[in-house]
Design brief:
Shape: globular
Largest sheet: 7 strands, mixed
Helix content: under 10%
Distance between the termini: 37 Å
Radius of gyration: 13 Å
Low-confidence stretches: none
Strand content: over 45%
Order of helices and strands: EEEEEEEEEEE
Length: 122
């Protein structure tokens, strides 16, 4: 499985961005899908996850109510809608597939895409 994230860019605080993650192959629907981010000098952190069917979503408190994860298994694509962006949301955002655990640690995920940079100016 190969993943390609896109949609990053420069946005002012309070603005919105929509990230996309396109997956190759025909097994996308078998996997839990997640988004992570890594700011300069910081560890990669969990941002959102969505179940195989899309019926369940998971967020940390830092983005809950502002970010929305979704997926379309027919299109092998997932999205991260980010609203009310803050300067502290600035990071490289990564999409990932196939979690082997339940803590949302980055080490539990098997497939990773290249990141897309999101910069939020104040």
């Amino acid at each position: 499985v190969q993943l390609q994230a896109s949609g990053g860019g420069l946005v002012q605080a309070g603005g919105s961005l929509r990230l996309s993650c396109a997956a190759s192959g025909r097994t996308f629907s078998r996997y839990v899908m997640g988004w992570f981010r890594q700011a300069p000098g910081k560890e990669r952190e969990f941002v959102a996850a969505i179940s195989r069917s899309g019926g369940r979503t998971y967020y940390p408190e830092s983005v809950k109510g502002r970010f929305t994860i979704s997926r379309d298994n027919a299109k092998n694509t997932a999205w991260l809608q980010m609203n009310s962006l803050k300067p502290e949301d600035t990071a490289v955002y990564y999409c990932a597939l196939d979690s082997k655990g339940s803590t949302w640690s980055p080490t539990e995920w098997v497939y990773w895409g290249r990141g897309t940079l999101v910069t939020v100016s104040s």
